[in-house]
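Let's study a protein:

___
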Amino acid sequence: MAETRHVIIVGSGPAGYTAAIYLSRAGLKPLVIAGALTPGGQLINTSEVENFPGFPDGILGPDLMENMQRQAERFGAEIVFDDVIDVALDGTEKVVRVSGGDEFRARALIVATGASYRHLDVPGEEEYGGRGVSYCATCDGFFFRNKPIVVVGGGDSAFEEAHFLSRFGSSVTLVHRRSEFRASKIMVDRAIENPKIDMVLDSVVESVNGNENGTGVESVTVRNVKTNECTTLPANGVFVAVGHIPQTGFLGGQLRVDERGYILTDGASTRTSVQGVFAAGDCADPVYMQAISAAGMGCRAALDVQSYLEDAPLGQ
C-alpha cells in the first residue's frame, strides 16, 4: 500500500504552489501533483505580468510560476508532473490516482486545479493569443492604451471588463450574440452612459484578423445572426469574456459545487463539504480570479490544513 502522506495538493498555479510553500515550511512535506502538460496554470500562457506585488518591472508569467515552484521545492515540497484521473474522498485517507498509474494517499487534500477560459474557437483566436487576444482585462488592458478594443460577451464580467478597458482604449465595442444581456441592469446602464463603449448586438465573432506581418491583431469579423451580414470592426485588443470552466470534473461529484461547477467552501475558510478536503484558487473562486487572490487563498488553505491535521491525530 502507498505511503500515507500528510497532505496532497492537486494543481500547480499560484494557489497550489503558495499552499506548498507554507506547508513545506511547516515541515509537512506536501506532494504537489502539478499536471503533465501545463504545470503552472494559466500564467504559463501569460506574457508580461505587471500587477503581481514585488515585481516593479513586471515578470513573465512562466518565470513567476517557475520561481514559485523552485521556492516550494526549496523547502521540501515534492512535485509530480502527472494528471489526476480519479480521487476517493470518503475515507479518512484521501486517495489520488494519476494517469501514469500511481496511487497516492494523504490525510488531507487541497484542490487547486483552477479554471480555464472559455474560448470562441474561431480562426485567429489561438494564433494571436498574447498578441492581441486576451482573457483578462486587468492583466492586459494597459497594453492597449489609445487603441480600439473589442470585448466579446454579455454577462457581468464582460461589462466589467468593458468598463475597465474604457480607461485605456480609444474605443471599446462590446459584441454579444443576443439582443438581451445576462448582465445586471445597473451594469448595462453604466455601459450605455459610457461614451467610449458601443455595442454590437445579435452578432458573433467569426474571425480575429492580424496585420500583414502577423505580429498583432488589426480587426475582427463579426456576423449578424439574424441577417448573416458580416462586418469588420477595427481592434488591436480582443478581450474574450464568455466565462470560465472550473477544472473540477475529476472529482466525480464527491464535493459540493455550485451550478457552474465551482467548489463551495465553508464561509471565508477553504474547507469543503468533505472533512479533510480543502479548495483554493480559481476552482473555488468565480468572482476575483486573479493570481494574487489565488495565492492568498492557497495560503489560507495551507493554514486550514495545518489546523485540521493538528486536531485530527494520525490514524483518524
